[in-house]
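Chapter review: from sequence to fold.
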Amino acid sequence: MAITGLILIGFLLMHMYGNLKMFLGAEEFDQYAEWLKGDILAPALPPGSFIWIFRVFLVAMVVLHLYSAFTLWSRAKAATPSTYQVRKTLSETYSARTMRWGGVILAGLLIFHLAQFTVHSALVNGSFASTYADSPYKMVIGEFSLWWMVLLYAIWITVVTMHVRHGFWSAFTTLGANTSAKARTVLNGCAWAVAVLLFIGFMIMPVAVLFGWIH
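The token string follows.
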């Protein structure tokens, strides 16, 4: 669970970087989107191979992460009070106490997001699906010009960053980095830094579109 979680955090950072290319204009962003779907691995593999290999890999990481979460939950539930005791104190963070439900919410919103920008579902996008399908830049502008879409995205990113903050800390703790009080402080600081970076990095572009700073 720790390894798949860190891989998914790495993907979020890459995705955030790609989103910020919206600030460079339509040509730059559309070229970036086309490059991802085009010839990254060419001529070793046919054009378009990379995006499908990456999607399959990413889905595998999500499935393994969910499977790991279910396995750990099952073990915790099966444990007896003498061997395992759930902490229910005020010192627990909200994100730590809602990691499982946070993961369920993330999965649902991820499906919505894929239908929105990858599948171009008319059910989600309405007229944007056919009108702007030829330009990823215009698709993004069309979607985030809607205030309720930006609000929904903000809720999703908030849940994501809460999940990441606790997940980052837990992953490195599992891998042996939490060895002292100083290490714990540094690790917690890094977890917050990554979470804040992701929140700002993902939200600055939709807000800029909504207020007309990107058009």
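Two observations follow directly from the output. The CA atoms of residues 46 and 183 lie 46 Å apart. The first helix runs from residue 2 to 19.
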